[in-house]
Write a structure and sequence with these properties.
single chain; alpha+beta; Immunoglobulin-like; Chondroitinase Ac, Chain A, domain 3; 3 domains; ten-stranded mixed beta sheet; six-stranded antiparallel beta sheet; transmembrane; carbohydrate binding
């Protein structure tokens, strides 16, 4: 009997130890990091800039909230755009407050469906700012009141919070580089040949008459833009341009940008466009080299001072490219972007731990019962 009691005590202790180990593993998986990206950046006074609030290594998140504090005497929040991370779990309920008096940009997003959460890393929100023309100096962008909860409303531990900083500089006039005087003008050299500026790739098409509701297929830069108008229009000129770089007067688009595009339409007002479908191809080589999650690739439209992510769908794939299509209600400047892969998901790891623990518990219990029965015989 004493041996049986000892075996029972050992079994209970083993079960308790395994339970504590499993509990410890689950608690660790629930921690996360929240940070501002880019950590530092420099802009000219009077310009615009954007920052992203990023979350890393979160498990089963169903709600996020944060306040980004800034100096309202030199900058003002102009827009808050929800990131794609939480939305990947379903429809969200957004709450945003831009307080340019006290200098606080507040956002809160919650998944509408109960018992649902997302796991991994991604963008919680993108916040756009305007700066004063007379501003100069370095200013902190401080995250406070960061609150995370899982799909059941339980608080998620935040391991670390990293703030950002922006440096605003007065715009300086560049000093021209000296050149050698040309031969025959008293010098003994030649002025260097200037490096040519890359020319954006551009193509345009004109249509004389388009009827109401007619879907026009426009072949531009080997892509088929589809556009529909709300009324009869004529002499419509559509131009697309692959930009060499982002226009200087707009903020950076959210995510890792692959390319900026500009679509321009003439002799038609914005209200006359019913919808347009823009196709684009993403090289797999770029996706791999930048470690991009293909599911996060999207087309963003710059409209009324903010970047707006468009509903983007994967429509095909071949050896070298993944093909996408996005819908928009107007034509302007666009950016193709994506988010970095999240790595190994903490939730999957936690489930694996629980699976192993469960298997060990079953083996221990079966072995203990078998041993006790054998001794009784």
């Amino acid at each position: 009997m004493r041996k049986e009691r000892r075996i029972g005590i050992i079994t209970a202790a083993t079960l308790a130890l395994l339970f504590l180990l499993a509990l410890s593993a689950a608690t660790t998986a629930g921690a996360a990091t929240v940070k501002v990206e880019p950590v530092t950046q420099s802009i000219s006074a009077g310009g615009e800039f954007s920052v992203r609030v990023i979350i890393e290594d979160v498990t089963d998140m169903g709600m996020d909230q944060a306040v980004l504090n800034f100096d309202p005497s030199v900058m003002q929040a102009s827009g808050i755009i929800e990131g794609e991370f939480l939305k990947s779990g379903g429809t969200t309920l957004p709450v945003i407050i831009m307080d340019n008096t006290d200098g606080a940009a507040t956002f809160s997003y919650s998944l509408m469906a109960p018992d649902v959460g997302v796991t991994g890393s991604g963008v919680l929100a993108t916040i756009n700012f305007d700066t004063d023309a007379s501003a100069e100096g370095s200013y902190d962008l401080e995250l406070t009141e960061v609150v995370l909860a899982d799909g059941n409303g339980k608080k998620i531990i935040v391991d670390a919070i990293f703030d950002g900083k922006v440096t605003i500089e007065s715009e300086l006039t560049p000093t021209p580089s000296p050149t050698e005087p040309p031969a025959g003008d008293g010098g003994d050299g030649f002025a260097p040949t200037p490096t040519p500026t890359p020319t954006p790739i551009e193509e345009e098409k004109t249509y004389k008459n388009i009827t109401t509701g007619e879907e026009v297929k426009v072949e531009l830069l080997d892509k088929e833009l589809k556009i529909t108008f709300k009324k009869n229009v004529s002499e419509v000129k559509i131009t697309v341009k692959e930009l060499v770089e982002k226009p200087a007067d707009i903020p950076d688009a959210p995510g890792i940008v692959f390319r900026y595009l500009e679509y321009h339409i003439e002799n038609v007002s914005a209200e006359d466009i019913e919808k347009a479908t823009i196709p684009f191809d993403m090289p797999k080589s770029w996706i791999v080299s930048e470690n991009i999650d293909p599911a996060t690739i999207r087309l963003n439209r710059y409209y009324e001072g903010v970047w707006n992510p468009l509903r983007t769908e994967k429509v095909g794939e071949d050896t070298d490219y993944i093909h996408y299509s996005a819908e928009t209600e107007g034509l302007s400047i666009f950016a193709i972007s994506g988010e970095k892969k999240t790595g190994v998901e903490a939730l999957s790891a936690a489930r694996r731990v629980w699976g192993i623990v469960g298997a060990v518990l079953v083996i221990v219990v079966i072995a203990s019962v078998w041993y006790i029965k054998k001794k009784r015989k």
